[in-house]
Design brief:
Bound molecules: iron/sulfur cluster
Oligomer: single chain
Radius of gyration: 22 Å
Distance between the termini: 15 Å
Order of helices and strands: HHHHHHHHHEEHHHHH
Structural class: mainly alpha
Length: about 350
């Protein structure tokens, strides 16, 4: 960073370099902030005259990717679970397998084969296999845990990177930048790949994943409102907004993770953190399993396969929620916090910048 600060050749590429230029020294907190501001487009590596084989060996995207992974573990709550980040691919696989087995085994233990493989239709069909109250208790509990764990982690990250407060305008500005992934294009039309050419594929597939996830979340939230507010019980007709939101979200969560997995294979290994690969691939595969099992359940919900498919889908979703605070999912929150800080700092005179 000290070399970059003297060079400043990359200052137009993204938010990292203007934020860096506000600092003369770089504490651990400052570096964590800058690392999470970086979107890993790779542009500064290809632009750099001091990149390897130059003796300075400057490689901003790689160093920041490693720092980001460290910052997730350092801020994790509770700290005793921080090591999960290091073996994340394995953790996610085990959690998914155990949760799916638990739900399928549970369904098998509670119901006889005749009920499990019967055709259940009409309002409340799902709840004949798993009572609504049990579903709410299990998923409400794991959702609450994930929310608290992530909120406390972000609080630690915020304090580590300088603390202080931001305005609503800063938060909204950060939201606009995050929603469009403005800094994922390196100011050159996309991320750099192994063929040394920028393209926008990663941004497109990231949008599919992110907005697909939001639509699925909206679908689940609306279903909760319909169930508790109006007494309308799932499964719903295909034209119900709950189903439509779920279908479009599910398709986004299929297309996005598949595209990101393919884009990952084409990335230049020089600019990524090889240690984080398990975490990234594990998360994308979990999203893929969630959407694929959900869409399959929708298609086959009036057949005798519904019971096993429902158990599998619930198991995968449960594992996904459980591992949310200790995997790639948290990157969105850390980056959003860094963008909000950047929006705030950008309005201040240089001397007003906090150095966490
Ligand atoms: S990455 Fe290289 S070219 Fe860019 S500012 Fe740093 S030293 Fe200069
Ligand atoms: S990799 Fe891209 S986002 Fe990260 S610092 Fe370099 S230009 Fe900025």
């Amino acid at each position: 960073m000290t070399i970059c600060n003297a060079c400043r050749y990359c200052e137009g590429l993204c938010a990292v370099f203007p934020a860096m230029e506000r600092r003369r020294t770089f504490s651990d907190g400052s570096l964590e902030y800058l690392a999470n501001l970086c979107h890993s487009c790779g542009a500064c590596y290809y632009a750099c005259q001091y990149a390897p084989p130059h003796e300075f060996a400057i490689n901003v995207p790689k160093v920041f990717a490693e720092l980001r992974a460290e910052s997730y573990a350092r801020s994790a709550w509770p700290q005793v679970l921080a090591p999960l980040f290091r073996k994340n691919g394995l953790v996610i696989t085990l959690a998914a397998a155990i949760a799916a087995a638990f739900f399928i085994g549970g369904f098998g233990a509670v119901h006889d084969a005749e009920t499990l493989f019967a055709v259940h239709t009409g309002p409340g069909a799902f709840y004949r296999l798993m009572p609504h109250d049990v579903m709410v208790t299990l998923f409400g509990g794991v959702f609450l845990f994930a929310t608290v764990a992530i909120a406390l982690s972000i609080r630690t990250f915020w304090n580590t990177t300088g603390g202080g407060s931001v305005t609503l305008t800063d938060v909204l500005n950060a939201g606009q930048v995050a929603a469009t992934l403005r800094y994922l294009d390196g100011n050159r039309g996309g991320c750099m790949n192994e063929d040394d050419q920028p393209n926008d594929r990663r941004r497109f597939y990231h949008h599919c994943t992110f907005y697909g996830f939001l639509l699925c979340f909206a679908s689940t939230s609306l279903a909760t409102i319909l169930h508790n507010g109006l007494g309308w019980h799932a499964p719903y007709a295909w034209y119900n907004p709950v189903v439509l939101l779920g279908v479009f979200g599910g398709i986004g969560l299929l297309v996005g993770p598949v595209g990101l997995l393919r884009a990952k294979r084409r990335r230049d290994l020089n600019v990524v953190d090889a240690q984080a690969r398990g975490m990234e691939v594990g998360f994308l595969v979990m999203l893929l399993l969630t959407s694929a099992s959900g869409l399959l359940l929708l298609v086959l919900r009036t057949t005798s396969a519904m019971g096993v498919l429902l158990a599998f889908h619930l198991g995968v979703v449960f594992a996904l929620f459980l591992t949310f605070p200790y995997g790639k999912f948290v990157h969105g929150f850390y980056r959003y916090a860094a963008l909000a800080r950047f929006a705030h700092e950008s309005k201040l005179p240089i001397s007003g910048t906090s150095d966490g």
